[in-house]
Amino acid sequence: MTEERFYQILSAYGANPERWPVAERAQAEAFAARHRSDVLAAVEAEAELDAMLGSGDGRASDLLERRILRSLPEPEIWNWHAPAMAAAAALVIGVMLGFSSGALISPADEVETYYADAFNGLDEDWVDWLGGDA
User: Fold this and answer.
1) Given pLDDT bands bounded at 50, 70 and 90, which one contains residue 71?
2) What pLDDT score was predicted for residue 4?
């Protein structure tokens, strides 16, 4: 085992040899025994770190929890007003176009003839209805 690989295992898995990979555990223990004075400080530092990480109850402090929650983006609330207003606008525009379409369409020749026949000579009809000369 190389010195570099030993320190990789030590920093990744900690100072407890039971957590080291089974395939490399025997080689790493043999390396540590051969180079005891060289690796002692690193093993003690990792053991101290393991103790600090293992001593907590696993719960984050309230301050850390608030900071994390504050850093999250605000949830987007679905705005139901926008689709309702769009539907109402479409309805109003549709109704307005429906009512005004009669004024926008040019009348056909037959319709004009009926209109002219119905209202042509209106003065004469009033005279006859009133009974005499008006």
Assistant:
1) very high
2) 93
Using alpha carbons, select from 17, 43, 41 the residue that is nearest to residue 28. 17
Q: Could you tell me the CA-to-CA distances from 123 to 44, 116, 118 in Å, in that order?
A: 119, 14, 12
Q: Which residues contact 60 (CB under 8 A, 6 or more apart)?
A: 68
Give the residue carrying structure tokens 């850093």. 71
What is the DSSP track for 41-101? HHHHHHHHHHHHHHHS-S---HHHHHHHHHHSPPPPPP-SHHHHHHHHHHHHHHHHHHHHH
Residue 26 confidence class, pLDDT cut points 50, 70, 90: very high
